[in-house]
Amino acid sequence: MLSGDSSHVVVGVSGGIAAYKAVNVVRLLKKTGLDVWVVPTANALRMVGAATWEAVSGHPVYTDPFDGAEDVAHVLLGSKAKAFLLVPATANVIGKLANGIADDMLSTTVLSATCPIMVAPAMHHQMWTNPAVKDNISRLKKRGIHFIGPVSGELTSGDSGIGRLAEPEEIVDSFLSLLNSLDDYSLRGKHVVVTAGGTREPLDPVRFLGNYSSGRQGVEIARAAYLAGAEVTLVDVNLEVPAPAGVNLVKAHTALELQEVLNNLFQDLDILVMTAAVADYRPAIVADSKLKKSQNHLSQIELIENPDILAGLGKLPRENKILVGFAAETAGGQLGIEYARKKILEKQTDILVYNQVGHGRGFGEVTNHVCILDSDGSIMVESSGSKQDLAKLIISNIACFKK
Ligand code: C5P
């Protein structure tokens, strides 16, 4: 019944008015590819109904420890969780957690959990500053429970002060970094090489054959890998967007330069993510002065084939290295997936990320739609969203990938 894989997380929701914001937290977590189970308290259900939690999480919700008693659902949910997030956490739930009280589904589940727990409190500022609550919080902190927020701002009561739930995006980022710090999700100690951008094949000193790739998706992948603890080398293939902080930068302009850079890096990398769009052909002759229209130099250009860099690297002994390719295709749907599957065989990649491009999709855009396939061609996950969110999805799938 319950999935026991490493992407299983539990979100406990208690009955604060901010419960509606937890819907967005669950939605954002789901988008990163996590398997999210929601445990609302009876009071949370008075704010947001079970049907909403079931629709956003894609799983049934249990609110009573006697629901699903045959499976001991609270123990299964808690013990299989990779991490537990309480959002919003009321003073009541924090008090129960601090004192080991287990009188409903959420409090029994959280007591069964052996995984890291993150708490996102939300309450009126007078409750937050109450000595009893402060005492409970400091006991939980001493036990290693993580906190995100609350922040200062407008409160539902109409006044303002500290007690407002942190923003859903901020909660999700903190929870993901908590997950990334765990072994299955961490890229600590790994050297990740990401290629980003598009090659430019020179024709003469002022012209080149190129493509529309801005490098945005690859830059976000490099950033996500860095945040997951990896040492990252970003190969800047004519990037049109700034590189993230903290990564090593190497430049390559053409397919041949990129091949040379990767040949030099291959021995020492653990994960190669080939996001860059590489020209399949280059001009056979590169003129050393500007080609002239008047001399009919430009009406026909002879091209020669570039090496398929990824396919070449895919043939080398790779031990535990993970090779990730990209398939940017104008074909969508089943046909696009079929092209992507063909590419897995041609290039011997461990993971292939397929995305549809052209007609306002993919290249240069801020959002993207990706389908991540493993070496058998099975779909690991499919999602759309910002390139930043998809980069986190791609990186968490790489980090969890076992050969
Ligand atoms: O064959 P296609 O260009 O669609 O393959 C895309 C994948 O192969 C990308 O990961 C790209 O970086 C890589 N590639 C390559 N060398 C080429 C062409 C593409 O490594 N000459």
Pick out its properties:
403 residues; alpha/beta; Rossmann fold; 2 domains; 8-stranded mixed beta sheet; 14 helices; 35% helix; binds cytidine-5'-monophosphate
Topology:
Elements: E1 8-13, H1 19-31, E2 35-40, H2 42-47, H3 50-57, H4 73-80, E3 83-89, H5 91-99, H6 105-112, E4 117-121, H7 125-128, H8 131-142, E5 146-147, E6 151-154, E7 160-164, H9 168-180, E8 191-197, E9 201-204, E10 207-209, H10 216-227, E11 231-237, E12 248-251, H11 255-266, E13 271-274, E14 281-283, E15 303-305, H12 309-314, E16 322-329, H13 333-347, E17 351-356, E18 367-374, E19 379-386, H14 387-400
Parallel strand pairs: 1-2, 1-3, 3-4, 4-5, 8-11, 8-13, 11-12, 13-16, 16-17
Antiparallel strand pairs: 6-7, 9-10, 14-15, 17-18, 18-19
Residues 255, 274, 276, 278, 280, 306, 308-310, 325-327, 343, 347 line the site of cytidine-5'-monophosphate.
Would you give an account of this structure?
The protein is of the alpha/beta class and about 400 residues long. Strand 16, helix 13 and strand 17 form a beta-alpha-beta unit. The longest helix has 15 residues, at about 335-345. The chain contains 14 helices and 19 strands. The chain is about 35% helix and about 25% strand. The two termini are about 25 Å apart. Helix 1 (about 20-30) crosses helix 9 and helix 5 packs across helix 8 (about 130-140). The chain folds into 2 domains: about 10-180, Rossmann fold (3-Layer(aba) Sandwich), CATH 3.40.50.1950; about 190-400, Rossmann fold (3-Layer(aba) Sandwich). It is elongated. Cytidine-5'-monophosphate binds near residues 276, 280, 309, 326 and 347. Cytidine-5'-monophosphate (C5P) binds near residues 274, 278, 306, 310 and 347.
